[in-house]
Structure formats: C-alpha cells, structure tokens
Write a structure and sequence with these properties.
Chain B is α/β, with parallel strands linked by helices and 247 residues long. Chain B has helices spanning 43-50, 73-78, 96-105, 111-116, 124-133, 149-161, 179-196, 207-213, 231-236, 238-245, and strands at residues 3-14, 17-28, 32-36, 58-63, 66-67, 81-83, 167-171, 199-203, 216-221, 224-229. Chain C has 316 residues and is mainly α. Chain C contains 14 helices and no strands. Classes of the chains: A mainly alpha (290), B alpha/beta (247), C mainly alpha (316).
Chain lengths: 290, 247, 316
C-alpha cells in the first residue's frame, strides 16, 4: 500500500510539474498582455506533432525538439502575437479570448486533417529502480527534474535578471515601465516567445504519457487553467504550486476514485477555489469591482 | 440644521504616500461646500473614500449620523447619495433622455415591476423636465456621444439629480464647460440646491465658479484641511495662497 | 437600440420567411431551417451573457444538453412537451444563478472558467451516468410532441418558439433591464454610482441566457429524435460563442445572422470536407480583426455611409 502511495505521489508530481510549465506560460501571457489563451492546450500538442514529424524523417528526438522550439517561437510566439493579439486586443480582451477559441478550433482540426485521429506513441524513457518495495520509474524522475529545473530557471530569470525584471515591470504597469525607458512592446513579445518555449518543453515531457492526439489540448488546457487559478495567477510561483497540487490530487483521484470522472477533478478543484479562495493559494485578494 | 455628511479623521495611504492624511469635516443640510486645493492635494482620493469607491485606511464616514464607512457605491446610491466623476461619464450610445431615465430608474419600484412595467419606467416626463431645466431639450433624442463636451457635462450633472438625491458630490463640474454656459450652469445648480433641498459637495478648480456657487469652502493641501470657512475668507487666507503658490 | 421596431420587424420577417419557405422544401433543408431556429434561440441567450453582460460563458452547450435530456427523459413518462421545456429552462436558470453568484464576486475571466468547469462536469455526467442518460449510446426514438410530428409541423414549432423568444427578448431589452444591461457593459463604475446593481444584473443576464439554452435544448432533442453526450460537449459551446461573435455580439440581430452562417457554411463548404472547421475558424479570426462588431456591424457600415447625427460643436 505504502509503495503504491509513493508511486502515485511521484507520478502525480511529475504530471503536475508539466502542468506548472503550461500554467506558468498561461499566466505570463494573461499578465503580460491580457491574453487569456483558450488555445494553450493546443499550443502543447502542436510542437509534439512537429517533434514526431521530424522523428519520422529520421531525426533524433533532441533535433526534433530544437526544430519544434524554433517553429513554436515563430508560430505560437511571434505570429500569434503579431497576427492575432496585436490587432484584436484593442477591440477588447473578451474579443481576443474568443479569437483564441477560434484558434483552438483551427489548430485542432488542422492537426486532425494532417495527422489523423489516432493517438501517436511518443518515445519515452523505460525502466526504473526498485527501492525497497517501492518502484520509481525513470520517466517520472526525469520529468520532475527537468520541469523543476526549467521552472527554477524561469523564476531566477524573472526575478534576478535585468531582462526578467523589465518583463515583470511591463506586465504590472506598462505606463510606468515606459517612463523608465523599458521597451514594453519588446518585453511583451519576449513573453510570447517564453510561453512558446514553455509549451514546447511541456510537449516533450507530457507526450510519452498522454501520447500525441489532435484533441489532447482540451484536457491539457483545462488542467493548465485550473493550475493557474488554484495557484493564484501569481506569475511562476503560483503556477508551480497549483500545478503540483493539481497533478497529485488528480493522480490520487484517478487511482483510488472512479476513472471515468478523472477529468472532473481539476474542474471540481477549480470551482472550490473560486468559491472559497478566488485569489488562489498564493495570490493576494483583489480589489473588488463593485 | 442637521449634519448630512461627516468625515472623522479620514486617512488613505497608498504604500508610503499619504493621499488623505487625517481629514475631518461636516456638511450641513442645504449647504454647498466647495473643496479646493492644488493638484495632487488628495481631493479626488477624499471623494473616492467618501463614496465607497476605495475604502479608507482609517477613520469614519457618517451619513445622517449613520456610519457608512467603506459602504459600496450602490448601497450609498440607495441612501440618496449621488455623484459625478471628474472625467465625463455619460453613456454615449443612449440618447440624452435615455441617460436620464437610466439615472432614475433604479430608484423607483421593484426590479420585477420594472421588467414588466413601462419601458421608460414612467420617467420620460421627469427626464424631459430635467432636460428643460438644464437647457438640453433640443438634444433630448440625440445619442449622448454626439453632444458637445459642454452639453455632455451638463447631462452628466443632470443625471446626478434624477433620483432626487439628498447629497450630491460633484467632481469638477465646470471643467471644460465654456464660459457662455458656465453662468447658467451655476444658476441651475443653485436652483437645484434651493428647490430640491439637496446638499452639495463640489470639487472645483475654477476659483470664480467656486466662490460664486458655494456657501462654504474648504481647502486641502497634502492630504490635510488647511482652511475651512466663508468663500472670501478662504480665498484671502495666507496659508491657502501659500499652498497654491508653493506648488 | 436606435430603431427598436425595425430590428424586431427584421427578426420576425426572417422567422416568417423560414416558415413559408418550408412549404416548398425537401426534408433536409427543412431540417436545416429548424436547426437554425434552435441554434438562434441558444445564441440569443448567449448574446445576453456575452453581448450585454460582457461575460464569457462556456457552458451554453451544457444548458442545451440539460434542456435536451430533460425533454428526452421526461416525455416518455407522459410529461407534456411544454412542461419538459419549462423544467429544462428552470434547471438551467437555477444552475446559472448558483454558478454565477460566486464567480461574479471577482473580476476578470472567472465566470468563463467556472462555466468551463461546468461544461466538463456536465459532459462527464451525461456520458457516465448511463442509468439515467444511456451513456454514449445516447437516446434514440425521441417522439415529437403532438401535433408537431411531421418535419414541416416541427419546423413551425421551432420557428414559433423562436418568434416568442424574439418578442420576449425584445421586450426585456427595451425595458429598464435592457437599459441597465447596456449600462453595465459600457461603464460598470458609473452604472453602480447611479444605483444600478451591476452584479445582480450580470447574474440575471447570465441566468436568463442559460435558461434560453435550456429552451433551445428542449427543441433540439425531438428535432433529430436522437441525442448523445458528445453533442453537448465543449465544441458546441465554442461554436455558439462564435455564432454570437460572427453575427455581432450585443446586437439584437447578431444571433440570427451568426446561427445562419453556422448552419449554412458547412453546406456551402461541402467540397472542402474536413477543412471546413479550419476555414470557419480562420474566418472568425479575420472577422474579429477587421469587424469586431460582426456581420451586423459590417452590414450597418455598408448600408449607411452617411453619419448618424450631425457632429455637435466641439467644446472651446
């Protein structure tokens, strides 16, 4: 029993760490440019297809990952911002949110038409280690370590470097940032590219577990939104706490609860948080509107 | 004479900035109190604290003797407090008449009755009278967004009177209104004060407008009341002159 | 708002044209027009939430599902159609209030996420609670209410319901409530200073919108005479939102046009087969870039090139 609990905990933390990456990108966009990206889940599936495509031409996974990074930075970063966000945001944040839903439909159906409806296997890491009677799989350990390293790097970048602080300043007060001589437009663009890098890394880590399917983005997106809100839209830290909590709770519920309601867990957590702690675990209470 | 509005030792800090720093005053029924002070002296923050837009950090606000500190704008509106904003805030898509009906409709009958009652909530007559009083009858049916700045400013002020308020707080009512309208606007406000029996608090930069409209003037500088009394006394008060010149 | 009688007349004329056209058409086009009427009712509801209260709801498909399942499950037990319709609408309304109340305490996209959660959970319930909903096999042989059993008669029932919903919504929007909805969308701070209870009106707009989703679902079930959970999942919610935006959110005629595009486009783009949704999505994005007030805005700009009111003198 104990061994099962540890296993469920570790694989929950691993999946939660990936949620954290995706949620961190989601929060960055929403804070940096009021873009509530309802296509964030599909943003994770697209690079996975790129890696698979490169792989099918005989390229190793790492090379596919590099190509996917470039493609994501261009398409999900620069083009997404220039062609959609920049022209639609002046009409309103709500209009932009709905445009991202349309984008979600476009991405999903493009991947369906090009790739097909089946779930494609994605190479992962096999094996593990027995530690007493606890089995720890290398896959989860690798995911956890990679994701933690990435999140830590992101946190350090945002908090400790000049560029990171400039990005934060632009997100919190564009006018003030401009007065301080920060190129806000460029900082926002960097935010979009950062998000593209985060979802590409998430694609590499999550695909061996969930496989690659055109509509995986729905479930991934739901988990990422929940993680972001549970954590408290608080840049990176909130996403990490929310992601890990969600991953563990979801994994325990899936192991010990009814499997067919697995997807309901993040949603129930989300509703509970909005009911009782809308500012999230790490967020501060907002000034209420009315 | 009873006290309509009272502020007791109000404070509002933003981080280390003390925007309102211990303000106390009373407004008696029927008064027109002018609030003046140099830019950034804390007038608008004071207004926002009085009106529930932002909660004060410390201190209390009383309306007719009842503690209303931190009460939401909607609740204050139900208690007969209305206001205008420093920046123009009419609804540009609605006609001038519709703007006035909107300003009055939530104060009559129940919500259900409004749904099933007349589309104008029975307020067309009252709105048209108000338009006439503010000399806006000729633009009654035009979208408010198409009116001149001065006309919108008048409409904005007229909206504050639609619910028959007990207390009206006007934030720079004369700002941007051209001189030819200003005189009649002032007379209109005076008449509303005399006929409607409501009490006014007015923030204004136009010194002539304040001096000729208000029954009493209070000057604020650096979050504190530095003078409070008859208009001409305040105007000649050396500390007031100093506060303006010092900036 | 400028010409309330004209928009009502246009809307009712569209309904009437649909009804008369039914005489000369084959079953499939009749089905499409009925579908248009059903989607329009749902989109009118969502337009209240999105276009008037300014809130994104991703649960409209769930409310349609609730209405559809209420009708499909209760009618075989002898409950008359009119009653099942009211029950579906009432459940949706109450759920709307229960969900909207906490979500509207905080600003931002919280209602969107709460409704997203509801949409996911409702779909799982439809799919998993087989004892009630027959799971993924769906419910078939749903009987149409007498005397609307033929395709043509059922078309008239759908259009008649749409006409009633149109009149009701028109009344609502012309009443003081409609003025309050417009005020809270344009300027919530000013609205609340005038005594408009912004939170209450937002909640009401959302709940009424949800109830109309339930009404639309009640008509949906007997139309195809078969329902299954996947029909009421997130894609329908997205699709309904896009209908509102394509038509023009916040305009009375928007839902009518948006639903028309959504029903007609797959037929027009038949030769593109699977790429139809990709094209639709790209079109929506382009529309949002170039005409944020949708087709209604596009048409209005094309029709009247002259300015509405003579510009007044600027302030000196």
């Amino acid at each position: 029993m104990m061994s099962l609990l540890v296993q469920v905990l570790i694989s929950g933390l691993a999946i939660g760490a990936i949620y954290a990456l995706i949620a961190a990108g989601f929060s960055l966009l929403s804070q940096g440019s009021q873009t509530v990206n309802f296509a964030q889940g599909d943003f994770v599936v697209l690079p996975a297809f790129v890696i698979l495509a490169a792989n099918s031409y005989g390229l190793p996974i790492w090379a596919g990952f590099v190509i996917a990074l470039v493609v994501a930075a261009l398409v999900l970063g620069v083009l997404f911002k220039r062609l959609m966000v920049d022209p639609i945001l002046p009409h309103g944040a709500m209009q932009l949110s709905i445009a991202t839903m349309a984008l979600s439909i476009v991405l999903q159906n493009s991947m369906l038409n090009v790739g097909g409806a089946q779930a494609f296997p994605f190479p992962g890491i096999n094996g593990g280690i027995h530690w007493g009677n606890v089995f720890i799989d290398w896959q989860s350990v690798t995911i956890l370590l990679t994701a933690v390293a990435a999140v830590t790097a992101l946190n350090l970048f945002m908090g400790r470097t000049r560029l990171g602080r400039a990005i934060q300043a632009s997100a919190q007060g564009p006018q003030v940032a401009r007065l301080l001589g920060i190129n806000v437009t460029r900082m926002v663009l960097i935010t979009f590219v950062l998000n593209a890098a985060l979802v590409t890394l998430a694609a590499l880590l999550i695909s061996p577990i969930y496989l690659v399917k055109f509509d995986n983005g729905i479930g991934i997106g739901l988990a990422a939104f929940s993680a972001a809100i549970i954590g408290g839209f608080n840049q990176v830290r909130g996403a990490v706490v929310g992601g890990l909590l969600l991953g563990v709770v979801q994994n325990f519920a899936a192991t010990f609860g009814p499997t067919q309601y697995r997807d309901a867990v993040p949603m129930l957590l989300l509703i509970i948080f909005i009911l009782f702690r809308p500012q999230g675990l790490l967020g501060r209470a907002e000034e209420r509107r009315v | 004479m009873s006290v309509v509005l009272e502020a007791r030792d109000l404070h509002r800090h933003f981080g280390g900035v003390k925007a309102v720093n211990g303000v106390s005053f009373q407004v008696e029924e029927g008064e027109i109190l002018g609030v003046i002070g140099p830019n950034g002296s804390g007038k608008s923050t004071l207004f926002n604290c009085l009106l529930g837009q932002i909660p004060p950090s410390m201190g209390q606000v009383f309306l007719d003797g009842k503690d209303v500190t931190g009460m939401k704008p909607i609740a204050l509106s139900r208690r007969g407090v209305s206001r205008t904003f420093q920046l123009l805030q009419v609804f540009p898509q609605l006609s001038a008449r519709e703007n006035l009906i909107l300003a009055g409709q939530e104060h009559i009958g129940s919500r259900m009755k409004r749904l099933f009652g007349k589309p104008d909530a029975g307020l067309t007559g009252a709105a048209d009278r108000m338009l006439e009083q503010f000399k806006l009858s000729h633009v009654a049916a035009l979208p408010a967004g198409g009116l001149s700045y001065g006309q919108q400013k008048l409409l904005d002020a007229a909206m504050a009177f639609m619910a028959g308020p007990r207390l009206v707080l006007l934030d720079e009512p004369a700002g941007g209104v051209n001189l030819s309208l200003l005189g009649s606007f002032r007379e209109r406000l005076r008449a509303m004060n005399a006929e409607g029996g409501s009490t006014f608090v007015v923030i204004e930069h136009n010194m002539d407008f304040v001096m000729s409209l208000c029954t009493r003037v209070m000057c604020i500088a650096e979050g504190k009341v530095i003078a409070n009394g008859k208009p001409e006394d305040v105007r000649n008060d050396p500390t007031v002159i100093e506060a303006y010149l010092g900036h | 708002m400028n010409h309330p009688y004209r928009v009502l007349a246009i809307a009712l004329l569209l309904v009437l044209v649909g009804g008369v056209a039914g005489f000369g058409l084959k079953p499939y086009p009749i089905y499409l027009i009925s579908q248009w009427a059903v989607y329009t009712i749902s989109a009118i509801g969502l337009n209240l939430t999105l276009g008037y209260a300014g809130q994104i709801s991703l649960a409209q498909a769930s409310f349609v599902g609730i209405g559809a399942y209420a009708t499909a499950l209760l009618m075989p037990h002898g409950v008359p159609f009119g009653v099942t319709l009211v029950i579906g609408a009432a459940i949706s309304f109450i759920l709307g209030v229960l969900l909207g109340f906490p979500a509207l305490r905080v600003q931002g996209h919280y209602l969107a996420f709460v409704t997203l959660a509801l949409a996911t959970i409702a779909f799982l319930v439809f799919r998993n609670e087989s004892w009630l909903t027959n799971g993924t096999s769906g419910i078939d042989k749903i009987v149409r209410p007498f005397p609307f059993t033929s395709d043509l008669a059922y078309l008239w029932l759908c259009l008649g319901s749409l006409a009633i919903v149109t009149l009701g919504t028109w009344w609502l929007l012309r009443s003081p409530w409609g003025r309050a909805f417009l005020a809270l969308r344009e300027n919530p701070v000013r609205a609340s200073s005038l005594g408009v209870d912004v939170r209450m009106y937002t909640l009401l707009a959302f709940a009424i919108g949800a109830a109309l989703g339930g009404v639309s679902g009640a008509l949906f079930a007997p139309l195809g005479q078969y329902i299954e959970p996947a029909e009421f999942a997130l894609p329908l919610s997205f699709s309904l939102l896009l209908m509102v935006v394509v038509g023009g959110s916040g305009s009375f005629l928007g839902p009518f046009l948006g639903a028309m595009v959504a029903v007609a486009l797959p037929e027009v783009l038949r030769s593109f087969q699977d790429y139809y949704l990709v094209i639709y999505g790209v079109m929506v994005i382009l529309l949002l870039v170039f005409s944020p007030d949708g087709l209604v805005g596009l048409i209005e700009r094309a029709v009247r090139r002259r300015p509405v009111a003579a510009p007044a003198e600027p302030a000196k």
